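We give the chain.
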Amino acid sequence: MAALMNPDSSDEMVDHLVDFFDQIAPVYDSWANGQHSRVAARLVELVKPKKGQQALDVGTGTGLVAHFVAAKVSPGSVMGIDLSDRMLSIARSKESKNTQFLGMAAERLVFRPETFDLVTMGEALAYFADPDDALNEAYRVLREGGRIAVSCQRRSLSTRAQDLFFQGLGPLARRHYLNFPRYSSERSRFGEPDVLPRLLESAGFEVELLTEMVTGGRAQDAREWIEMMAGAGPLPYTLIKALGPRYRLELEADVESAMDSLGDPDDSFRYHHSYLMAVGIRR
């Protein structure tokens, strides 16, 4: 049995992602010492929302970006959309008078052309069923002169410890006969400086700002490392959560051995999460 299904089997992949985000919703905001919140705050800082603007947050999740924007645009408003009901439930539970959250696909926005002054996509682009369609829709609903702000993880800047861990996921899945869908590997490059601007320009945006944010830390041991890495995406999450107690202990032993193989103790259990952030304008 193959461990990974054919890339981009769209409907099944969307269902898989929605299930992943539903399950991690309760811990999303606190993951990696609040990393998602820091990335969201930086993205909003870069795009500089203005009072009275109408904004759309695509792939809003728990509403981190949406609520940061809402505080800046009031008395304007923010619409946040997502496909994860549990994420949306958390977004709605946060106090805000000028936000609204709806279940909606990024590729099929129901809004009229030129409705919004600002569109944001925080850590979401690589998860959409069709990223190009999502960007084209964002362009359509933005007013002339409106801005889009996008953040994507730059996966090429991971540490040696992260590289070792992710290299072991495929063999681990095959060993346990686990089967799950995945997107094509090209999406792992969305956060690269030569890729994200090209995606935005292909949709008609003029990129006016490109910058990077790097966060990181170090886990104390294999158990903490595995829990942290499980939240890094649907692939490690699905695989790790499928393992029973016995196999989790085996995985911890494998991780300890892999970290020892790095030689330098400073490299063991160290992680970087790097994000490329782009701001574009609709001419």
In short: Residues 168 and 255 are 9 Å apart (CA to CA).
